[in-house]
Amino acid sequence: MFAWLNGLNEQQRRAATSDSRALLVVAGAGSGKTKTLASRVAHLVASGAPPNRILLLTFTRRAAREMLARAERLAGNTSAVRVWGGTFHSVANRLLRIYSADVGLDPSFTVMDQSDGADMMNLIRSELGHGTRKRRFPKKATLAAIYSAVVNTEKHLEEVLERRFPWCGEEADSIGDLFSAYMRRKREQGVLDYDDLLLYWRALTESRRAGPALAAAFDHILVDEYQDTNEIQAAILRNLRSESNSVMVVGDDAQAIYSFRSASVANILEFPKHHPGCEIIKLEQNYRSTQQILDASNAEGRPKTGARHLYGRVR
């Protein structure tokens, strides 16, 4: 019935067909993680799981489309396109339209992209007179980056400035005032930025009424590139768990690239701690690199990262 599973190696097949309620798949570069995730979705659909009760979270819309298209081809079942697939932000946008009342939102809210958010900050910057001061004041791109770092790390502004933007430290009070004005302006205009989407989604999962409903809405939750999630995204995933659903995350801490977006590699390293009984499957067969590259990567004496301890050496 599932002849297409024969195209997977042993570890990929285990990941695609596992019955574990919590599954961590550690996938090194070139180990076929996209194929494995698509096969997992196809297997769930072909086994009778309602597609609209499967949630696939990725970091790009293109990745979601590719995985769902592969799953449809593998399973030979067009219902795979009804899977809830998309980025964290796009799924948040859909859910907030449905459950807006539970977090005090108007369902017709508008979403600003990063450029629009930076432009709004720049307008407020001028209104507050910071653009005409003799002392240098951060420009809109820097202000947007500082604001996003504060939101996603949930650290105090002063701490974020000290660690990541030390040249802006003298302007902490003025930056704080600007951010307060920015949040008021968003509320007045009924708009959310990308960071708000995650904050409100987490608030939904913590709501007494909407939280249980959201957790009950999905039987299977799959997350790609888990090493690039931040603490808010990890909290959303933990809150979506219930006694009746399963979660599978795929990632490799050696490939973490979004620390500048407040991603925390600790999320993948600590996943088993937050999900007791978690099964760990390692995809160690490399299908992308030549043998010479693999030999150099696995050479003795190379510094070992947490990922190498976690998933061993690629072959």
Cα gyration radius (Å) = 22 Å
CATH superfamily annotation of the largest domain: P-loop containing nucleotide triphosphate hydrolases
Order of helices and strands: HEHEHEHEHHHHEHHEHEHHEHH
So what's the overall shape? elongated
Whole-number tally of structural domains: 2
Query: What share of residues is helical?
Result: 40-55%
The beta-strand count equals 8
Distance between the termini: 31 Å
CATH third-tier fold name of the largest domain: Rossmann fold
Any guess at the CATH architecture of the largest domain? 3-Layer(aba) Sandwich
| Mean of all residue-level pLDDT scores | 87
**How many DSSP H or I helices?**
15
What structural category do the secondary elements indicate? Answer: alpha/beta
The CATH first-level class of the largest domain comes to Alpha Beta
Largest sheet, spatial ordering of strands: 3-2-6-7-1-8
Strand content: 5-15%
Low-confidence stretches: 290-294, 300-315
Report on the biggest sheet: 6 strands, parallel
Concise account of the structure shown:
With 315 residues, the chain is of the alpha/beta class. The protein is 49% helix and 11% strand.
Supply the key terms.
315 residues, alpha/beta, Rossmann fold, six-stranded parallel β-sheet, two-stranded parallel sheet, 15 helices
Describe the structure.
By secondary structure, this protein is of the alpha/beta class. It folds into two domains: 3-100 and 212-311, P-loop containing nucleotide triphosphate hydrolases (Rossmann fold); 110-189. Helix content is 49%, strand content 11%. It is built from 15 helices and eight strands. It has helices at 10-17, 33-46, 61-75, 88-98, 114-127, 140-153, 157-164, 172-189, 194-206, 210-217, 231-240, 266-269, 271-274, 291-297, 306-311; strands at 22-27, 54-58, 84-87, 110-111, 191-192, 220-223, 246-251, 279-283. A six-stranded parallel beta sheet has the order 3-2-6-7-1-8. Helix 2 (33-46) packs across helix 3 (61-75), helix 4 crosses helix 9 (194-206) and helix 6 (140-153) packs across helix 7 (157-164). The longest helix is centred in the middle third of the chain and has 18 residues, at 172-189. It starts with 9 loop residues before the first helix and ends with a helix. Residues 290-294 and 300-315 have low confidence and may be disordered.
